[in-house]
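Look over this today:
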Amino acid sequence: MARLTARFWIDAYLTRLRGQDIPAFIVSHGDDTAGSILVKLNRLDGQATVYQRSYNLMDDTRTWAILEQGAEADVDASITRQQGYDPDIWVIEVEDRQGRHLLDQPGLD
């Protein structure tokens, strides 16, 4: 199965968010081709969640799993740790009081 480049996926994701009037921006630019992606959902109330893509090798499916959630400072610390492990990682921040991130929609896995 062919995989999309990280940059292509991010551009499509940001376009989909803009179409729903959900503000989002690139916090950290990773490797354009194969960089891992973290999506931080900032609820603008001091709470946040960071999602990472996880792969199920048994059935070759991808899902978005919560890496960390809670106080925004704790979520940011988790992101910083991940960047220490993987300097090619992308970080996208989505700002939405309603908690919309669209990661559960078709085509974004």
User: Anything to note?
Assistant: The longest strand covers residues 61-71. The chain has one domain: 6-95.
